[in-house]
Each structure stands twice: as C-alpha cells, then as structure tokens.
C-alpha cells in the first residue's frame, strides 16, 4: 500500500450511477464460503516466487512477472478472457492482469481489484498477496459455480501500486471515456490478512465525518453490502478514510463508485480497537509492513478467511442484482415544481432554499459548495456568496422546500436517495439541522453540533416502501435555530427507485 495521494483526490465528488444490493430472490446462488486453504495455497506460490527471485515481487523484477504469469495461468484454465497489459514506469516494464468472465451486461461492469506487486524489501505476502490471493480464489469460484451475473464481471491485479498506483492509473487513464462509463463500481482489496488485524471498510458515505469526504455516488451502497456481511457474522467494523490511498484512487478520480476492506497497515492498534477485535494494543496492525518479514508467517488466518468470504458475498450480491427502476427523479437542471415555504411557516430571513448554480464559500474550511454532484444546478440555501461567508447563509430559523406530488407504485420496495450536505460553524448546536420528510414523516436527519462541520457531499438513502401506492411529497428542511451560526445546506440528485 502506497503513501497518501495528493489531498486533491479527497475533494472530488463526481457523479456515478448508484449500486444497489440485490434482494435475496435476485441472487442466483448463495454466496460461497471461500476456501481458506485454497487462498493460502496461492500465498505459498507467491512466497515461492519471491524466494526464487531475489526475495521480492516488485515492479520490473522477475518475481513480479512470475506472479502475473501465475495468476493469468490460473484464470486462463478457469475460462476467463485474460489480458496481460504492459506499461512502463521508471524505465521498467510493469503488468496488469485483467480477467473478464464471459456474460453479463457489457454496459454495466463490476470490477474487483488488488495490487499484485510487493516492495523491493520483501515478498509482500500480506501487502498485497493477501488481497491478490483472495480475489483470485473468488474468481476461480465464479468459474466453478458457472455464475451467470446480470452485471459483467472483470477482475484486475495491478502492477506498481507501491510506486504510486502506476498500474491502475495507466489502466483507467488509457480507457476511452465510453469504456470508463461502463464501469459502474470498483471493489478494492489491499491487505486483508494483517496479523494484528482490524476490520475496516472504506467509508464511502462519509459517516465517520473525518478526513476525506464521501466517495462518488454509489460508494455508500458498496460499503453497505460489505457491512451487511460482517454484521451477519457478528464482526464489528469501523470506517477507514476514503482518501484514495490504494488502487481505487484512479477510479474515484473519474467518478466511479468504489469500496473495499482493509485490515490495517503501519497504523497502531488502539486500546479501544483491541477491545473491539482482540489483538495487541499499542502495536502496528502489521509489524512487517514493507519489510522482509512480510512472509506467509505474517498472516492472520481468521482475518484472511473472513475477508475472502466478504469479497465473495459482495461479488455475488452486487453482480447478480436486478438493476433498479427509477420511479421519479430530479437533478435540478430544470425547474421541477418544488415549492419554497409550502406551509407559509418558515422563519429563516436569509438563506432560503433555491434552485441554481451555487457559489462557493469558506470559513474555517468549505461551507457552501460551489460544485454540484451532477450538472450545473442544485438545491441550495442561498446560492450567492456575498462579501463574507455568512452573507447568504441561513439566519433566523427554518427554511423548507417541497417537491411536487409523486405517485408511488403499489406493492413495491421503494428507496429514496439523495446527495446532501450540512455545514456549520463551531457555535452551532443540535437545534441546527438538515431533515428530509415524506408525507410529514422524517426519513433522514442530520443535527448540528458545537464543532466546525465542513461542507462535503454525502449520500442518504431511506426505505419508503411503507408509502407504496400513495401520492407523496418530499419536504426538505434546514435550520439555523440556535442563535447566529454559519449554516449552509445543499441537495442534488433526488431519486426514488423500485
């Protein structure tokens, strides 16, 4: 796993189609239990390759090409359509292994990837033989079960990740825009067997509210699918900052939804984390990170087994999902019949909701976002910037805006989704808020707090199946109700799907 990318990646909020988990009836077969013995057999092969080739499997070294050839041979024998894609970095040739499973919608691709290279200092068995072996065995299980996904499945093993995501960057950059648009989701698995393991999920929805913002639209749903597996086996998880540190970085930079799992690298396990997961507090998750001791002895079998099964769960669940049908949507590029202050009871004197092209404001970080999730316009509380950051923010209480009436179909499972943000200064309180109601019932709410909150697009979803067969309106509210605080809010891409 490489050092952090430029912070610019963290600020990206590009649009991509949402990824929905399949209902149980949509899954052709139950996700398999991936054989730990088989995954470890691949790790043994990677170790033997490194041992025979100078102790590593690094970019441009014979150990890397031997690793790539091993993976490709396994996939060729299993019926995958494979490509060994070459690229050059630092005057040395690197390779990506790309493997397509025949069938599925070629315009709706789920990619699953892991980097295959090690650092020069060691064989790289946890970093990242573990992720490479786990997705390899998942791909081979796809073949054994003759899976017939609705989405097209593509697996990838990346070269030169340790030198700055060079292989994945080469792949994404050199895809034609029309081909990139077909990739609806990317799952990344980098270090999934750390000896002092934690259980982290890429924080696609920014629910942790720290560091980088959320991933592109659809990332939250990928996180939920993985979360669902760990919940089912009683293993608690925590978020890891969606900062593009591994090979999902080039994908999120192009607006492609991403997710994945991670068991920890050089970071130190806290006492609270040791209580949560076991292991040793005050010690790195992987004490052999980027060292010669990252061998087959440097693997936590339980963590590797759980993560391999989580990968299979995600692949089966997502790839066999029935694509959702949009019942109603509004991206605010045209007037859609929304009404400000529909009840005539709003108290806000400035910062009322309006549709338009927003101006950016900053005060101890971003407050009103000048970027939308899609298109030019969004729904925003006072779209102008003014001479000072607080000139057009919400003041005086609550502002509301209501959708036109929406007729919902009967007997359907219905999901409301929207992109949103709430930003406020450190003198805010829980009286300040962002809230969404359907026919008067609150379905989503974010309260303020006495701490600075920067503006960052996030995705909210709510099950509104209880309203099936009814005509509903969506009411969106925001408030600065605890005395003068700099409060801003925005909404984009509201959608109801079945």
Summarize the structure.
With 498 residues, the protein is an alpha+beta fold. 22% of the residues lie in helices and 26% in strands.
SSE layout and pairing:
Layout: H1 36-52, H2 62-77, E1 81-89, E2 92-101, E3 105-115, H3 125-144, E4 151-158, H4 166-174, H5 177-180, E5 183-189, E6 200-202, H6 219-232, E7 238-240, H7 249-252, E8 257-262, H8 271-277, H9 301-319, E9 326-330, E10 339-340, E11 353-356, E12 378-381, E13 397-402, E14 406-407, E15 415-424, E16 433-438, E17 441-447, E18 458-463, E19 471-472, E20 474-480, E21 487-497
Parallel strand pairs: 3-4, 3-5, 5-8, 6-7
Antiparallel strand pairs: 1-2, 2-4, 6-8, 9-21, 10-13, 11-12, 12-21, 13-20, 14-19, 15-18, 15-21, 16-17, 16-20
Helix pairs in contact: 1-2, 1-3, 3-9, 6-9
């Amino acid at each position: 796993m490489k050092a952090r990318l430029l912070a610019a990646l963290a600020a990206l909020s590009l649009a991509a189609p949402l990824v929905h988990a399949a209902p149980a009836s949509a899954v052709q077969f139950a996700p398999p239990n991936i054989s730990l013995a088989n995954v470890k057999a691949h790790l043994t092969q990677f170790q033997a390759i490194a041992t025979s080739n100078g102790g590593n499997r690094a970019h441009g070294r014979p150990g890397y090409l031997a690793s790539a050839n091993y993976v490709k041979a396994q996939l060729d024998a299993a019926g995958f359509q494979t490509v060994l894609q070459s690229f050059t970095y630092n005057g040395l040739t690197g390779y990506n292994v790309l493997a397509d499973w025949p069938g599925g919608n070629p315009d709706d691709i789920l990619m699953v990837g892991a980097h295959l290279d090690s650092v020069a200092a060691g064989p790289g068995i946890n970093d990242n033989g573990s992720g490479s072996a786990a997705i390899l065995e998942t791909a081979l299980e796809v073949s054994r079960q003759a899976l017939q996904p609705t989405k097209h499945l593509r697996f990838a093993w990346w070269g030169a990740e340790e030198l700055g995501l060079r292989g994945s960057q080469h792949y994404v950059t050199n895809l034609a825009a029309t081909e990139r648009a077909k990739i609806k989701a990317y799952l990344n698995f980098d270090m999934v067997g750390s000896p002092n393991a934690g259980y982290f999920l890429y924080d696609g929805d920014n629910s942790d509210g720290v560091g980088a913002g959320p991933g592109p639209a659809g990332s939250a749903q990928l996180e939920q699918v993985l979360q669902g597996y760990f919940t089912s086996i009683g293993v608690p998880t925590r978020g890891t900052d969606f900062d593009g540190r591994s090979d999902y970085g080039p994908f999120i930079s192009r607006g492609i939804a991403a997710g994945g799992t991670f068991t920890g690298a050089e970071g130190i396990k806290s006492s609270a984390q040791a209580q949560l997961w076991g292991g040793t507090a005050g010690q790195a998750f992987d004490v052999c990170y980027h060292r010669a001791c990252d061998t087959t002895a440097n693997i936590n079998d339980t963590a590797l087994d759980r993560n391999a099964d989580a990968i299979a769960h995600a692949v089966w669940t997502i790839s066999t999902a029935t694509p959702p049908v949009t019942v109603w949507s509004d991206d605010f590029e045209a007037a859609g019949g929304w009404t400000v202050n529909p009840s005539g009871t709003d108290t806000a004197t400035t910062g009322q909701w309006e549709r338009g092209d927003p101006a950016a404001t900053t005060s101890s970080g971003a407050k009103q976002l000048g970027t939308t999730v899609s298109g030019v316009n969004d729904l925003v509380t006072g779209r102008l910037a003014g001479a000072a950051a607080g000139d057009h923010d919400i003041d005086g209480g609550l502002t509301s805006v209501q959708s036109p009436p929406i007729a919902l179909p009967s007997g359907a499972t219905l999901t409301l989704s929207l992109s949103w943000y709430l930003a406020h200064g450190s003198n805010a309180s829980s009286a300040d808020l962002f809230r969404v109601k359907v026919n008067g019932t609150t379905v989503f709410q974010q309260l303020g707090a006495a701490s600075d909150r920067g503006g960052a697009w996030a995705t909210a979803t709510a099950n509104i199946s209880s309203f099936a067969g009814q005509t509903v309106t969506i009411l969106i509210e925001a408030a600065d109700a605890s005395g003068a605080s700099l409060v801003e809010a925005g909404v984009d891409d509201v959608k109801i799907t079945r």
